[in-house]
Amino acid sequence: MHEFPKRTDKLRILISNDDGVRAPGIKVLERIARELSDDVWVVAPLTEQSGAGHSLTLRYPIWLRRLATRRYAVEGTPTDSVLVGIHKALKDRKPDLVLSGVNRGSNVAEFITYSGTCAVAMEATILGVPAIALSQQTDFDRNYTHWSTAEHHAPGIIRKLMRAGWPDRNFININFPDCLPNEVASIEVTEQGSRPMGDSLVESRHPRGGRYYWVGSLPTQVKGKKGTDLAALEEKRISVTPVDLNFTNKRAMKPLAAALKGRKKQ
Question: Which residue, among 175, 161, 51, has the nearest Cα to 115 in the 3D structure?
């Protein structure tokens, strides 16, 4: 079980994201973090890395740029940022908590697997640092995002989570609904939902010949099963999901073992 310093002002917090070091959401997250501690560090990708998932740069060098005091940019993925941040930028003392986001757009259901925001929290958890991913649901056809909802509610939720603690090898995935702060109905601990994923590819032809493709429309919000992150957002509830890094389906182990028992080598 993750434990935290009794005095939150002694917390060392590392912030990262996948929208880039200059994204509006990371500025919101800095303000959230500074309500918890003065020892706040930013180590985030230099450019947007949305959809990068838990990818790690192996074929190219990872450059770390110091932008200001306690503020760094990494030429790499969100995973790279956490790895370099913990082992290099904060090498004198590991952070007590890693916060990721605030992402523009929700990270629920199967999107968790694509999300660089969740990958930040995943990598920190692997490195033994408790982590929370934060995302603000929004309508991408609208220029305005309700950042104030995440900013208003996140500090209190994070404090409660730290008091309660959560299991090792787990991170917390928080999603805020697309509404004003005072329109939030409640906070709900949810499970990961499921929805049909978009498989649309938009094909175009290059003027010099050859075809190329864009990933087309992403799945629209569908009605989620009660108790899931999808349903919570539909009902203007803040979704809090504990995500386990052990992907093993334990219920399937015995039936598979029985089916494979006694099979001869081919």
Answer: 51
SS3 191: strand
Any idea which fold 8-260 has? Answer: Stationary-phase Survival Protein Sure Homolog; Chain: A, (3.40.1210)
pLDDT tens, position by position, 52-66? 999 999 999 999 999
For strands 12-16 and 39-45, give the pairing: parallel
Read off the pLDDT band of 9 (50, 70, 90).
Answer: low
Q: What is the DSSP letter of 219?
A: P
* Mean pLDDT, range 88-100, rounded to an integer: 97
Q: What gap in Å lies between CA 205 and CA 212, rounded to an integer? A: 6
8 vs 36: which has the higher pLDDT:
36
Alpha-carbon distance 56 to 59, whole Å?
A: 9
Nearest Cα to Cα of residue 244 among 178, 174, 166:
166
Query: What is the three-class DSSP state of 214?
Result: strand
Tell which residue, 204, 211, 190, has the closest CA to residue 106: 190
- Report whether pLDDT(239) > 60: yes
User: Sheet harboring 97-104: ordered strands across?
Assistant: 63-68, 71-75, 39-45, 12-16, 97-104, 131-136, 170-176, 237-244, 186-189
Strands 201-205, 12-16: parallel, antiparallel or unpaired by DSSP? unpaired
Q: Where are the domains of the chain?
A: 8-260
In the chain, what are the helix, strand and coil shares in percent, each to the nearest 5? 30, 25, 45
pLDDT at 198: 64
Q: Measure the CA–CA gap between 168 and 184, rounded to whole angstroms.
A: 30
Rg of the chain in Å (alpha carbons): 20
pLDDT (mean) for 146-172:
97
